[in-house]
Automatic annotation (TrEMBL):
Protein name: 3-oxoacyl-[acyl-carrier-protein] reductase
EC category name: oxidoreductase
Quaternary data: Homotetramer.
A Pfam family per the record: adh_short_C2
Record carries keyword Lipid metabolism: yes
C-alpha cells in the first residue's frame, strides 16, 4: 500500500472527486481527516471508508474561515499526531458571462477556490515545516490553464492556484515538502450528471478519447503524487483531461 500509515486531510470529501480520493487513499493505507461544510454530508464517505477497514474522522469546517481551518489542523493532529498529506479539493462554480457576473458570484468562487486553498495550505505548512516533511496537493483545472466561456471567476481562481502551487514548491522544498496540483478536464461528477445530455455530449467531444473522465481518474493521480513514487516531483500542474487541451 503506497500510503500506509500516512495521515491525509481531504477537503470537499463528501462527493465526487473528494469522495473518490478518500476511497483511494483508504485503500492505499492512509488515515483520513475528511472535511466538508456539514458533518452529515460526510456520513456516506465516512461509512464507506470504515466499511473498507480504513480509519477516518469527519471534520465540519468552512475553508474560507481561518478559525475553522485552524480547527482542521488541531483536530487532525490531536487524533493522529501529524499531517503528511493535504488534498485541497473543496471548490464551487458560479458561472456567468463577464458583463453579467455579479460581485457575489465573483466573491463566492474566489473565496472558496482561491482563499480557501491558501488558508488550508498555509496552516498545513506550519505543521509540515515542523515535521520537515509533507505533501500539499491542490485542485486546479484545465480552465485554469486555458480559460473557459462564462467562467471568469473560476478561471481566475484556478490560475491563482497554479501560481500558488509553483510558489509554494519553491518556498517549501527546503523543508522536505512537495507541492503539486492536478488540472482535471471534464469529469463525470454528480453536478455534471445533472446537466442536459447535449451539454454532456459537448464535453465528451472535447476529449480526443471522446469520453468524460471519472472521479477515480483524478483520485489515482492524487494517490500517485502523494506517494513516495513521486518523491522527485514538485511544482507540477498535472493535466488529467483525456487530451482535452492537446
Amino acid at each position: 500500500m503506497r500510503l500506509n500509515g500516512k495521515v491525509a486531510i481531504i477537503t470537499g470529501a463528501s462527493r465526487g472527486i473528494g469522495e473518490a480520493t478518500a476511497k483511494k487513499f483508504a485503500l492505499e493505507g492512509a488515515k483520513l481527516a475528511l472535511v466538508d461544510l456539514k458533518k452529515e454530508d460526510l456520513a456516506h464517505t465516512l461509512k464507506m471508508i470504515r466499511d473498507l477497514g480504513g480509519e477516518s474522522i469527519a471534520i465540519e469546517a468552512d475553508v474560507t474561515d481561518r478559525q475553522n481551518v485552524e480547527k482542521i489542523m488541531e483536530e487532525t493532529v490531536a487524533q493522529y499526531g501529524h499531517i503528511d498529506i493535504v488534498v485541497n479539493n473543496a471548490g464551487i462554480t458560479n458561472d456567468a458571462k463577464l458583463v453579467k457576473m455579479t460581485e457575489q458570484q465573483w466573491d463566492s468562487v474566489i473565496n472558496v477556490n482561491l482563499k480557501g486553498v491558501f488558508n488550508v495550505a498555509q496552516e498545513a505548512a506550519k505543521v509540515m515545516i515542523e515535521q520537515k516533511s509533507g505533501v500539499i496537493l491542490n485542485a486546479s483545472s484545465v480552465v485554469g490553464l486555458y480559460g473557459n466561456f462564462g467562467q471568469t471567476n473560476y478561471a481566475a481562481a484556478k490560475w491563482g492556484v497554479n501560481g500558488m502551487t509553483k510558489s509554494w514548491a519553491k518556498e517549501l522544498g527546503r523543508y522536505g515538502i512537495r507541492v503539486n496540483a492536478i488540472a482535471p478536464g471534464f469529469i463525470s461528477t454528480p453536478m455534471v450528471d445533472k446537466m442536459p445530455e447535449k451539454v454532456k455530449e459537448m464535453m465528451k467531444s472535447k476529449s480526443v478519447l471522446n469520453c468524460m473522465g471519472e472521479p477515480e481518474d483524478i483520485a489515482n493521480g492524487y494517490a500517485f503524487l502523494a506517494s513516495d513514487e513521486a518523491r522527485y516531483i514538485t511544482g507540477t500542474i498535472l493535466s488529467i483531461d483525456g487530451g482535452t487541451v492537446i
